[in-house]
Amino acid sequence: MFELGPALHHAFELLRGFAVSHGMSRDAALLLSKIIQANILVLGVAVIPMVLVYAERKVSAFMQARLGPMHVGPWGILQTFADGVKLMLKEDVVPAGADKWVHFLAPVVAVAPVFVCFAPVPFGQGLTPVDLDTGVLFIFAVSGVSTIGILLGGWGSGNKFSMLGGLRAAAQLLSYEIPRVLSVIPVLMWYGSMSLGTIALAQHGRWLGILPKWFIFYPVIGQIAFLIFLISSVAETNRTPFDIPEAESELVAGFHTEFSGLKFALFFLAEYAYVFLASAMGTALFLGGGDGFLLPNGILPSWIWFLLKTFALVFLFLWFRWTYPRLRIDRLMQFCWKFLMPWSFVNIALTGLLVLVRQR
Amino acid sequence: MSQTTTPASAADVFPQAPPEKGMFISLGPQHPSTHGVLRVAITVDGETVTSAQPDIGYLHRATEKLAEKRTYPQIIVLTDRLDYLAAMTNNWSYCLAVEKMLAVPIPERAEYLRIIVGELQRIASHCVFLGTYGIDIGAYTPFLVAFGRERERILDLFEELCGARLTYNYIRIGGVMADTPAGWEKKVREFVKEMWGHIQEYDTLLTYNPIFMDRTQNIGLMTPEMAVAWGITGPNLRATGFRADVRKDDPYSLYPQLKFDIPVGKQGDCWERYQVRVSEMRESLKMIEQCLDRIQPGEWMAKLPKVYRVPAGEGYGHLEAPRGDLGFYIISDGSPSPYRMHIRAPSFINLQVLQQLLKGWKVADVVAILGSVDIVLGEVDR
Amino acid sequence: MSPSLSSLVFYAFSAMLVVTAVGVVTLRNVFYSAVSLVAALTIVAGLFVLLGADFLGAAQVLVYVGGILIIMLFVIMLSQQPRDLLQRQTNDQWIAGLFFALTIGVSLVRAFTYFVSQTPPDGDIAPTSASLGRLLLGEMLLPFEAVSLILLAALVGAVVFGQEKNA
To answer: How many helices (H) and strands (E) does chain A have?
Structure first.
């Protein structure tokens, strides 16, 4: 069926050729096409949270015997758009005790890495914006920068609750980053690559002609790794049951209490974009990327498969949020350091053993 | 009298200066987790609570004093405003006291209707507890499910019965306000049938959720001795393992004819206080079913004159309200209004234990313990 | 990328790096200093990538920006004192200090130009993680393990010192 990757590739080739033939230097033409690609990506990343927010509202509503937004557009699909416009038009309130510059910088630092993070994600066959050899490491590294944005937000608000929220968030994000990275290491060991595209491609294929060769289906190691990755990803995105940084009943709204208007919208955008990023990573690392299943090959293009799987994982995130209570802060840390960490080490050792066996 | 009384300022009761060791936290009166206008003055050493002092009175409306200037039937309206989540049992308890003094026989149909609405009210009240407790712990869905779905169904039933959704004024001295509208009993039966499934849903959603159990089990332990010493009643007392229930110990209405158990806990932690309430909802369903089987058409109001005077003397009526032993003590001097009325409000008495109960636990547990005691400030401050 | 483009990016990065690095040592607000250190280290990572060391660049961001600097911000936020926020970063001996720094800077530049004659290869960035891994777990295994042992010792030491005395 319709594969988007080759078509886009072809289009950009044409564009570059056109630019060069009209007197543009090759460098400038390359730069132009890269800028266009980057803009497509940024636009896509900015739109995804709107879809996710709508999904969150509808899913939560259906779980809670409600209908959710129904008035703006059919079935309320324009609700998030309306909310976005509202947030943009809202007055930007900077508290009197706030550090003006840090207050301004915080949402920017929080949101900027998200866009960069999507660069090495293989959205489908030939649809990897930049196939970095260190893709996985790159995503972990860059997404860690957002934590600084949260800290800046906590500090810049000049509000004790915000600062507490910011500190809690930083402690939590820093802690859960470790099992998250460790949980992915078995995948990297098995496929011998850090490129998301290569890993996703290596998972195409079937065992006995039925079971997909996705990493999640590898006995024991696949499941442990996936579970740890999923749990720590939920913690990394500050969502229930790990939403302590924003615990309403304890900290009002945590680090983004004092942000309004567009600044708040940016924090919001970052949060949802990270949910999508985590799901996309999970899809590429554990669920075979754009590999289809059940249906015969070629009925659906790989990018559709990728999005389907990603949204299935996003649904898991939503499901957790609307059915689970919140962990207590000390239990949260204990769970990370005393449960997830040892098990991820065990899993790495186990994978090492299996890799050895495979080499024999 | 030359003696002047200086009003006690907040500073007299609670030191404003920070304690020598640790920190002073004023929780409330405007805090999302204090369930109304309650303030708890907490001192903490590190993460551990060293003292906790509930500060009440933000909602005081002098209900007991107001009662002295009203005729007996007019007072029922006041009782609606006490525990506003369980107005039916408030009406009922007051009526019990007055009926005792009047020595008026209540028609059987009225008694059954009272039990049905009383137990429905208990379920509705526990639904609110369940939902808000979920929010305290960080789960949102139970709130919208229990509060927004099941409780609304009960309120619909009550609305059909008496026209009100919060302050019912349905149970009157000598019986109930009106007979049931056509088909009401069938609707109750349908609701009861569905409710069994819904309680099952609460169990899977919240009661046996590992995170929820982790937050509430072995937290805020209350021994039976401690509970009795503080005068705790209701589910909070039963959670400690003390089997005490006014419906069994000092039976009123037709409860002796009904078959039901009294759920009790073992160690009185937050989870058991919660779990006892969920079990009570099941017992209430059983009772409603039995009442629906037995109820016969007939009179719903005793023959009472339009204007009556309660003979001089005193009377005390109490019953098992959703939050504990709710009692009305009335002294009559034979005039149309009572000489003095006192309300034994279970929330008020249960609240006092917080001073001891919160001590020694972590700050993060304060919200969990506070929620599990389940107080209604309308009743605390009266 | 062609040489002209890459040198353009290099000079842009370097200029930003100098500005932020000067900010680290001159800003009077400790928090601002830390934030400009964040920026400086991020730009250093960018330079690494520009030189073809993609793994090093990612590791730089992951460890320094995403880890160490967050801890530093953490400490500043927890131990905030009004006087910390407005501190002069120089004292009476700033002339001596400047002289000393210049000496080190000049000798470093001399040393690098003497020993390192090789310029980084132009053209596309070649992956380095595989060769780096082979080096770390092969030829350099002993130093690698020794460093990790030292870090472990530091960790244990921190725990010992951090323990409460009465515990």
So the answer is: 13, 2
B135 and B215 share a domain? yes
Tell me the C-alpha distance between B168 and B177, whole Å.
Answer: 10
Rounded to whole angstroms, the Cα distance separating A266 from A84 reads 10
Examine the domain organization and report whether B133 and B84 are in the same domain: yes
Task: Name all contacts of B72-79 with Cβ < 8 Å and 24+ positions apart.
Answer: B72/B98, B72/B173, B72/B308, B72/B310, B72/B336, B72/B337, B72/B338, B73/B172, B73/B173, B75/B337, B75/B338, B75/B341, B76/B169, B76/B171, B76/B172, B76/B173, B77/B167, B77/B169, B79/B328
Instruction: Classify residue A131 as exposed, middle or buried by CB count within 10 Å of its CB (0-12, 13-18, 19+).
Output: middle
Q: Are B49 and B21 in contact (CB under 8 A)?
A: no
The amino acid sitting at B99 is E
| Closest to B221 measured CA to CA, from B277, B274, B270 | B270
Provide the domain limits for residue B17.
10-55
CB contact under 8 A, A326 and B209: no
Has residue B6 got a pLDDT over 50?
Answer: no
CB pair distance less than 8 Å for A64 and B134? no
The question of ipTM being above 0.85 is answered as no
How many angstroms separate the CA atoms of B287 and B296, rounded? 16
- As given in the structure block, the two tokens for residue B180 are 């049931």
The ranges of chain C with pLDDT < 70 are: 1-3, 80-89, 116-127, 164-167
Same domain, B147 and B267: yes
Least CB–CB distance from B139: residue in A252, A324, A331: A324
Report the b/e string of A281-306 with b at 16+ CB within 10 A: bbbbbbbbbbbbeeeeeeebbbbbbb
Coil, helix or strand at residue B39:
strand
For residue B234, give both structure tokens: 């209701």
| Same domain as B15, residue B159 | no
Q: Report the alpha-carbon distance of residue C20 to residue C11 in Å, rounded.
A: 14
DSSP A160-174: HHHHHHHHHHHHHHH
Whether residues B45 and B134 share a domain: the answer is no
Q: What is the mean pLDDT of residues B91-100?
A: 90
**In this structure, how many other beta carbons lie within 10 angstroms of the beta carbon of residue C137?**
11
B236-264 tens-digit pLDDT: 989 988 888 888 888 888 888 888 888 98
How many other C-beta atoms lie within 10 A of the C-beta of residue C160? Answer: 8
Which of C65, C77, C127 comes nearest A167 by C-beta? Answer: C77
**Of A132, A140, A167, which is closest to C74 when you measure between CB atoms?**
A167
Query: How confident is the model over B75-88, as pLDDT tens digits?
Result: 888 888 888 888 89
Helix pair A261-286, A79-89: axis angle to 10 deg: 140
Query: Between chains, do C65 and A144 touch, taking CB under 8 Å as contact?
Result: yes
CA–CA distance, A145 with B166 (Å, rounded to integer): 51
Closest CA to B37 of B29, B45, B48: B29
Say if residues A314 and A58 touch (Cβ distance below 8 Å): no
CA angle B193, B198, B199 (to 5 degrees): 100
Same domain, B151 and B292: yes
Count the neighbouring beta carbons within 10 Å of the beta carbon of residue C87: 12
Residue A68 in contact with partner chain B when CB distance is under 8 A? no
CA atoms within 13 A on the CB side of C41: 23
Read off the CATH number of the domain in which B294 is found. Answer: 1.10.645.10
Against chain A, the chains showing at least 3 CB pairs within 8 Å are B, C
Q: In which residue ranges of chain A is pLDDT below 50?
A: none
Q: Is the pLDDT of residue B133 over 80?
A: yes
Euclidean distance between CA atoms A153 and C80, whole angstroms: 16
Q: Is the peptide bond before B29 cis (omega within 30 degrees of 0)?
A: yes
* Cβ atoms of residues B66 and B343 within 8 Å: no
Number of domains composing chain B: 2
Q: Kindly state whether residue B1 falls inside one of the protein's structural domains.
A: no
